Amino acid sequence: MKFFWAGLVLALTLRLAAADATVPTADIEGAADNQLAKRYEGSFIVSYETLAFTDFSLPLSPLKPSADPDARDTMNNRVFAPDKKAEVEGALTRIAYVLPAERSPLEVLRNYQDVIKAAGGEALFECKKEECGGAADRSSSGGGGDMSLMMYFFHDSDLKDEAFSNGACALTSGINDQRYFSAKVPQDGGDAYVTVQTYSMTDDLYCKELNGRTIAVVQVLEPKARDKKMVVVEATKMADSLSATGSISLYGIFFDTDKDDIKPESEPTLKEISTLLANEPKMAVIVVGHTDNQGAFDYNLDLSSRRAQAVKAALVAKYGISGSRLTAAGAGMMAPVASNDDETGRAKNRRVVLVKLN
Fold it and tell me: Is the pLDDT of residue 252 over 60?
């Protein structure tokens, strides 16, 4: 038995040692720079992920604790969110670089800012250390404390990097001297958005080979048309759902980012709503705006209310529906129909709901 335990300890030790982080000498397989924010010379890619189409929220002000002291994220951290943000959609690339030794987070950040400026970009927000809000010493990992800036974008559970790999170490270890900026870069077909977060990594265990190294996390959201595969809900289907359940969720009403301006592609759904109400002249409905949980509670409540008001105004002005039959309300993030822990769930929560009033 003694030899068994000794062998087991040795096996585990060797396994963990084999998994320890090492100073990278090449990019991970399949990774490449994004052309809008190329690497600092001598750095290597240790984590790389792309999404063909997703939503992306950029803090444009420091993170602040939620007004609800009991609000928690998926890791039981107190929720922090910015009062001001930009919500955009498109193709997302996220890259983590390990920088050469003795390069400071500030030096690396300034170089990226130079690159963005040379491309005609516009700085949107910049912060450092505790000024960014949230836990300034945490990356994407950990629970039971305050959310960090990185946790606003993703948690360690979202990562595809193997445990103790260079990528996992870069994105889950402790951090120091955090720096961050966001920018907008004009492109053909729309604006691209770039965020860069740099920091000094701290670890004295399995990731110790990278202890003190500067890490740069670069995220680029490029404009891309969404594949329009959602079927417009016809008026008869709306009527059936309102009769059976008293409400119906609609995903065919679109708004400009962070605004209450209705996009032109919303017209088919608005037309079907008007047909529904024309066919049911005595029906009155509540138009309820819903958001995901990205951003401050009060901000999302106000945004959802303004969007509901915009839908009501469009139905009255363009389709001749009596305003007395429409009540606009905003629910903000209070009534999710899916988890807000991933992009798929958040997309389901951003919706307009019709509720039968009579």
Answer: yes
How, if at all, do strands 174-187 and 80-82 pair?
unpaired
Q: What is the mean pLDDT of residues 249-255?
A: 92
User: Closest Cα partner for 178 from 161, 195, 154?
Assistant: 195
The rounded radius of gyration (Å) of the Cα atoms in the chain is: 24
The string of pLDDT tens digits covering residues 19-44 is 589 999 999 999 999 999 999 999 99
Residues contacting 163, CB < 8 A, separation 6+ = 19
Q: Which residue has the tokens 């030096």?
A: 107
Q: What average pLDDT does range 177-191 have in this prediction? A: 93
Give the integer Cα–Cα distance in Å for 198 and 25: 20
Task: Tell if the pTM clears 0.90, that is, is over it.
Answer: no
pLDDT band at 347 (very low <50, low <70, confident <90, very high): confident
**Full DSSP string of 94-143:** EEEEEPPTT--HHHHHHHHHHHHHHTT-EEEEEEEGGGG-S-TT--S---
Q: Pairing state of beta strands 285-290 and 174-187? A: unpaired
**What b/e sequence results for 225-235 when a residue is b if at least 16 CB atoms lie within 10 Å of its CB, and e otherwise?**
eeeeeeeebeb
Picking from 16, 9, 59, 32, the residue whose alpha carbon sits closest to that of residue 169 is 16
